[in-house]
Design brief:
The complex is a heterodimer of chains A (326) and B (268).
Chain A (H helix, E strand, L loop, with lengths): L8 E2 H4 L12 H35 L2 E2 L2 H6 L3 E2 L3 H7 L2 H34 L2 H16 L2 H11 L6 H8 L14 H28 L4 H9 L4 H29 L3 H7 L11 H11 L3 H32 L2
Antiparallel strand pairs in A: 2-3
Helix pairs in contact in A: 4-14, 5-9, 5-11, 6-9, 7-12, 9-11, 9-12, 10-11, 11-14, 13-14
Chain B lengths: L1 H23 L3 H5 L13 H8 L3 H32 E2 L3 H13 L6 H10 L6 H25 L3 H9 L4 H30 L2 H6 L8 H6 L10 H31 L6
Helix pairs in contact in B: 1-12, 3-12, 4-7, 4-9, 5-7, 7-9, 7-12, 8-9, 9-12
Classes of the chains: A mainly alpha (326), B mainly alpha (268).
Chain lengths: 326, 268
C-alpha cells in the first residue's frame, strides 16, 4: 500500500510535497479518516436496504413455491431446485434464450454499425448540416421509450400508417394494408428498429467526441507520408476510438439483452406468446403475470447471471477508470 | 454529396418526433384518410382536449411529478456526498464502492421486479408512491454519483488549493469555491435523473396497480385499444404532452449529459 492509498488521505494533498511526514495522531486526522465513509453512508444504506435485501430474497424465492397464496401469507414452501429444473427442462426457455441472443447480436451490430457510420458522416458534413443532424439525434435521444412505442404503433398501423403508404409510394413493394404484426420475425424486426433508433444517438455523439480527439497533425503527417485514406483511418483513427467503441458495445449488449419496455408494449399483451418472447418479457409473463413468483425468481437469477457474465468486461474497464481519478 | 446524405439521415431520424407532434394537431379526417397529410393546413387543438380529459390523466401527471421531485431531491443530496468521497478521498473499500455503483447500473430492471414486488408488498409499499420512490432512488443514485464525480474532477484543483491557502477551512472552500463550480453539473445530473424517473415504466407498472396511483407513462401505455378503434389523434396528443417536458429539458443539458456519461471513457 503506497502512502497515497492510506485511508482518508485527501486527493488534494496527494499532489503536494511528495515525501510526506508522518502526521501525529490527532482528532482532526480521525475525522478526516472517517469522512469518506460518512459521505458514502447514505448511498450505501439505501442501496443495501432497497436492492441488497430484495436480491437476497430473490435467491431464497427461487427455491420456494411462492404464488398469490404465499404472497398473502408472507410464507413460501421450500421446493429445492424444482423451479430451476422446471425452467431448464422447458423448451420455451431455451427458445427464448436463443432468440434473445440472436436479437441482442442483431441490435448491437446495427446500433454500433449505423452509429459509427453516422459519427464518421458527422466529420464529413458542413457545419450547418452537422448542427441539423445533431439536433435530429438529440430529438430521437430524448423521446421517452413508452412514447416512442405509441408513435411506432401509429406509424406502422396497417390501415393508414405512414410507413405502408411511404413504402408503397417509393415502389419498395405493395405494402397496402400490410400487417407488420403478423409474424414473430416482423414483430421483432419492428422492435429492433425502435430500439436501434433510440440507441443510435448516444453512440453517435460519443464516437464523434472520440473522433474529434484524433490529432489532426498525425493525420496530416500520415497523409504527407503518402498513406492512403483507408490506411490513415485504420492505423490512426481506429486505435484512438477503439476503447470507446468497446465500452459502447458492451453497454449495448447488456442493455439489449435485458430490454423489456419496447418489446412488451410494441408487440402488445394480446400478441405476446412463446413464439416472440424475449427474456425480459418471458420473465414478466411467467413470474409476475402468472403470479408464480418462485419460478419467476429462478428465471431472474438465471438472467442476472447471464448479464453478470456479459458485464465483466465493462465493469472492469469502468473500475479501472474510476481508480485512475485525478 | 456528404451534406445530401446528412440531410436524408436527419429526415429519417427526426421524422417520428415530427410525426407525433404533427399528428397531434391534425383534424380527424386527415388522420383517418388513407393518404397521409404531411403538413396540416387546418391544425386543431381538440385532441389535446380529449387527451387531458381522459380519466386519470391529471392523476398520472400529478403522481409522476411527486415521484420525480422527491426522488431527484433526495438522490442529489445523497449522490453528491458520495461523489465528493470518490473524487476527493482515497479510502479502503473505495474500489468496492465503485464496483457497487457500476454493477447496479448493469442489473436488468426486469430481473428485479419480482423480489421488489414481494418485499415491498410485505412492508405495504405496493400501490404507494413511497415504494416507487425508494425503488427509483436505487437506480438514480449510481449514475448520479458517477456523473457528479466526473464534474467534481473537472474542477481545477488550483482553485480549491488557493482557497485553502487563503485560510478557508475545508467546509469553507467547499461552499464558496466548489459548489458554484459544480452547480452546472449538479443541474445537469438532476435533469438527467428527472428524465430517467419520468420515463420509467416497468416498476411503476408493477408496483402501482391502482389507476389513480399510476404515473404518466403507465397512463399512456393503457391508452391504446386494438388498432381498429384507437383514437390516434388523442394518443399522439397525449404522447406529445408527456414527451415535451423531457425534450425541452434534454435539449438544455444534452452536452453536459454526454460529458457526464463519458468522462474518461474518451481518454480510455
Amino acid at each position: 500500500m503506497t502512502p497515497s492509498e492510506l485511508p482518508g488521505t485527501a486527493y488534494a494533498a496527494e499532489a503536494g510535497i511528495r515525501p510526506r511526514r508522518r502526521r501525529p495522531f490527532t482528532v482532526a486526522r480521525v475525522v478526516r479518516g472517517a469522512a469518506p465513509y460518512l459521505l458514502i453512508l447514505p448511498v450505501v444504506a439505501i442501496v443495501v436496504a432497497i436492492l441488497g435485501y430484495p436480491l437476497y430474497h430473490l435467491a431464497r424465492l427461487s427455491f420456494q413455491k411462492y404464488g398469490l397464496f404465499e404472497l398473502i401469507a408472507h410464507h413460501g414452501t421450500n421446493v429445492g431446485w424444482a423451479n430451476y429444473s422446471s425452467i431448464l427442462h422447458d423448451q420455451v426457455f431455451w427458445h427464448v434464450l436463443v432468440r434473445t441472443i440472436v436479437f441482442t447480436v442483431a441490435n448491437v451490430a446495427l446500433t454500433m454499425g449505423i452509429g459509427t457510420l453516422l459519427a464518421l458522416l458527422l466529420t464529413k458534413v458542413s457545419s450547418v448540416v452537422r448542427v441539423l443532424l445533431t439536433a435530429g439525434l438529440v430529438l430521437a435521444w430524448s423521446m421517452p421509450p413508452v412514447v416512442a412505442v405509441q408513435v411506432w404503433l401509429w406509424m406502422t398501423n396497417y390501415e393508414n400508417g405512414v410507413l405502408n403508404y411511404t413504402l408503397t409510394k417509393l415502389h419498395v413493394g405493395n405494402y397496402f394494408q400490410h400487417d407488420w404484426y403478423a409474424t414473430p420475425f416482423s414483430q421483432l424486426s419492428l422492435t429492433t428498429s425502435l430500439i436501434v433508433w433510440g440507441a443510435i444517438p448516444f453512440v453517435v455523439v460519443t464516437v464523434y467526441a472520440g473522433l474529434t480527439q484524433v490529432p489532426t497533425e498525425i493525420v496530416e503527417a500520415a497523409e504527407i507520408d503518402g498513406a492512403r485514406p483507408w490506411r490513415v483511418f485504420w492505423d490512426v483513427t481506429v486505435p484512438i476510438i477503439k476503447p470507446i467503441f468497446l465500452v459502447l458495445t458492451s453497454l449495448s449488449i447488456i442493455w439489449d439483452f435485458g430490454v423489456f419496455t419496447q418489446p412488451f408494449l410494441l408487440i402488445d399483451q394480446t400478441r405476446i406468446n412463446a413464439s416472440n418472447e424475449l427474456m425480459g418479457v418471458y420473465l414478466f409473463e411467467e413470474g409476475y403475470l402468472k403470479t408464480d413468483f418462485g419460478r419467476g425468481a429462478a428465471i431472474s437469477i438465471l438472467m442476472l447471471l447471464i448479464v453478470a457474465i456479459l458485464s465483466i468486461f465493462y465493469v472492469r474497464k469502468m473500475v479501472r477508470m474510476g481508480d485512475e481519478a485525478r | 454529396m456528404w451534406d445530401a446524405i446528412g440531410v436524408v439521415v436527419f429526415v429519417v431520424i427526426a421524422f417520428p418526433v415530427y410525426w407525433m407532434i404533427a399528428s397531434a394537431f391534425k383534424p380527424d379526417h386527415e388522420l383517418n384518410s388513407l393518404t397521409p397529410t404531411w403538413f396540416s393546413l387546418h391544425p386543431t387543438l381538440s385532441h389535446f382536449g380529449d387527451a387531458i380529459h381522459r380519466p386519470f390523466f391529471w392523476d398520472g401527471v400529478k403522481n409522476s411529478l411527486i415521484v420525480v421531485t422527491v426522488t431527484v431531491a433526495l438522490s442529489m443530496v445523497c449522490a453528491f456526498l458520495a461523489a465528493i468521497a470518490l473524487a476527493k478521498f482515497r479510502f479502503t473499500g473505495r474500489k468496492l464502492f465503485i464496483i457497487l455503483i457500476i454493477g447496479i447500473q448493469m442489473l436488468p430492471q426486469v430481473g428485479l421486479i419480482i423480489p421488489l414486488y414481494v418485499v415491498l408488498a410485505r412492508y405495504h409499499q405496493v400501490n404507494a408512491l413511497s415504494g416507487v420512490i425508494v425503488t427509483y432512488m436505487t437506480f438514480v443514485l449510481p449514475f448520479s454519483v458517477w456523473m457528479l464525480r466526473g464534474f467534481l474532477l473537472g474542477v481545477p484543483k488550483d482553485l480549491e488549493e488557493a482557497a485553502m491557502v487563503d485560510g478557508s477551512s475545508r467546509i469553507g472552500s467547499f461552499t464558496r469555491i466548489l459548489l458554484p463550480l459544480v452547480a452546472p453539473g449538479l443541474v445537469a445530473t438532476s435533469i438527467f435523473a428527472f428524465i430517467t424517473t419520468w420515463n420509467e415504466y416497468i416498476f411503476a407498472r408493477v408496483l402501482l396497480n391502482d389507476q389513480a396511483k399510476q404515473t404518466a407513462t403507465v397512463w399512456l401505455s393503457y391508452f391504446t385499444g386494438t388498432s381498429r378503434n384507437t383514437d390516434w389523434g388523442g394518443l399522439m396528443a397525449g404522447s406529445t404532452l408527456i414527451a415535451i417536458p423531457v425534450i425541452i429539458f434534454f435539449l438544455l443539458v444534452q452536452r453536459k449529459i454526454a460529458f457526464g456519461l463519458t468522462t474518461g471513457a474518451v481518454r480510455g
